[in-house]
Amino acid sequence: MSTIRDISFRSVVRPLRVVFATAQGKKRMMQSIIVRVVLTDGSTGLGECPTSISLNRESTGVVCSMLHEMKQQFQGIPIQHYEPAIRKFRTEYSEYPMTISGIEVALFRAGLAYKKLTEHAYWGGKNRVVQSDITIPFVTDRSFLEHWIRYASQREFKVYKLKVSGNIEHDKKVLSEVHYMLRKAVEEFTLCLDGNEGYSKEAFCRFVDYIQANNIKIEFFEQPLARNDYQGLKEIKELSPFPIILDETVITSSDAQRVAEEGIAHGVNIKIAKSGIGESAAILAIAKKHKLKMMIGCMTESMIGLSAAVYLAAGTDVFDYIDLDSVFLLYHKNRFGNLLLRGPCFEIQP
């Protein structure tokens, strides 16, 4: 039985290809902490703790401080026994989910390496190709929008997720312009919206009226209202002509259970970067049981973290919507381990 010999971590900062703008703010750089776990038999695993506008308590300084504390409790224990400690940390430090997820992924991967099992096989190995959407940030600059849509269309993206703000007049303008540009640039496309908690119920209803009056087809609307506005979310779910998918509302399996039991939304967005391995698997099981729509998403992580979500998506092959585009917002290589990036697709090589 192999034990945890060492846990180390380092900071990574990389420029984004575009300003990542949402209803909650803007960022121009990717900042993450990379975690490395080494076992006594030499097996290793990497994880990533990203930083986020929506979870702004988790600065790189805070992440490193927490990792120092967790490192002391993990070192020397058998790799097969790390999960109870992760569950304990999730309870004690619920406001720092990405930090816990980063170290959990590293431990999970070290354990798989010890067992000589791939992530793809662990999740079921059902598919080898995953096709992502691409995000259009909330930017009112028409020249930027034209440039970004041209860039994405040339790389054969077919699904576009537009960030909207909750400011109705701005959102009407941006949506109309983006829809027009996409019709010119892409023969067939799917358009989704992401509110990042920016809307009120009234504003959402007014925006839906505008969308329908202008015959704009929307695949789904992600997190229009505040994460804890359960009653408002439940009400707009009944009114919405397209599925409501929850992101910020759902981090734990308890969150997903409440959404399912109370009928708060049509579906959930599962993010390993926030929920880690164990909770992501539990959320997935709840979504399946209650026939919720399933989306897999990301933060602004590099391929170290993003690859965990790619393997989950490919291995299970159950997701209705795939939003794994963080690497496309970076200046990136087209190969990472056995993952090949080809246009909007991740291909898992034998």
Structure, explained:
This protein folds into two domains: 112 residues, 2-Layer Sandwich (Enolase-like, domain 1); 229 residues, Enolase-like C-terminal domain (TIM Barrel). The protein is built from eleven helices and 15 strands. Helix 3 crosses helix 10 and helix 5 packs parallel to helix 6. It has an eight-stranded parallel beta sheet. The protein is an alpha/beta fold and 350 residues long. The mean pLDDT is 96.
Q: Can you give keywords for this protein?
A:
alpha/beta; 350 residues; 23% strand; TIM Barrel; globular; 4-stranded antiparallel sheet; 11 helices; 8-stranded parallel sheet
Q: Which CATH-level-2 architecture of the largest domain?
A: Alpha-Beta Barrel
Secondary structure: helix percent: 40-55%
Mean pLDDT: 96
**CATH fold node name of the largest domain:** TIM Barrel
- What Rg is obtained from the alpha carbons, in whole angstroms? 20 Å
User: Describe the biggest sheet?
Assistant: 8 strands, parallel
Low-confidence stretches: none
Measure the end-to-end span: 28 Å
Q: What's the total helix number? A: 11
State the CATH superfamily name of the largest domain. Enolase-like C-terminal domain
CATH class of the largest domain: Alpha Beta
Structural class, from helix and strand content? Answer: alpha/beta
Series of secondary-structure elements, N-terminal to C-terminal? EEEHHHHEEHEHEHEHEHEHEHEEEE
Give the count of structural domains: 2
